[in-house]
TrEMBL record:
A molecular function (GO) term: nuclear export signal receptor activity
GO (cellular component) term, any one: cytoplasm
GO biological process: protein transport
Protein name: Uncharacterized protein
Recorded family membership: Belongs to the exportin family.
InterPro entries linked: XPO4/7-like
Predominant place of localization: cytoplasm
UniProt organism field: Triticum aestivum
Coiled-coil positions: none
Amino acid sequence: VAVNLEASADAAFRTDVVKYAFTGLMRDLRGIAMATNSRRTYGLLFDWLYPSRMPLLLRAISLLTDEPEVTTPLLKFMSEFVLNKAQRLTFDSSSPNGILLFREISKLIVAYGSRILLLPNGTNIYRSKYKGIWISLTVLSRALCGNYVNFGVFELYGDRALADALDISLKMTLSIPLSDILTFKKLSKAYYGYMEVLFNNHITINSVLNLDTSTFVHIVTSLESGLKGLDTGISTQVCHYGSLYHLEMFL
């Protein structure tokens, strides 16, 4: 299936045949990824996917950003693929695979985010935009706290992968009214989970502290709203060893 999809012209990706084949492949891969609970089995999937298959995913998410029935299975697969459960993403000390994987994650999220922000909201904004955004935030959250990437390497070598991913993720979150973040439960959970991850890392927290004053105040206000909310899980993410706690410790 993957070989046939790779051979398809860009225009063909708009056809139902190609879209069904691609979404089916993403769902199958997600099922396989969920079943890989060891370094060995995960390594087999990683070697099959990287580097030869990643361009297909990037191509699909770039061409079909406005097709949530395609992008949702793709992003859900990636959210499972980057999850370091049972320490399955433990690469050898000399292996660059963690860094290479994050570069691919960055490409996908930047491609999706930069395009989704330009699309009109549509009649069902949750389906057309918010769902893809919260899954993207989940992908980044899991990658950032997976302990398989030395993020200092990106700044050291002038690699924009981390900076670009953080930049587009913040732009996506800022595009959503706070009232909507608090209304949609899955979006709210992903947003506050992502903020907790950002504020828990001395490298990524700078991406927030370097924002202009009004944007920074907006984010802090959203944390305050989460703290005052009725959802105890979210208030814990914000307060007790969560976003506000780490911000206070950093400052």
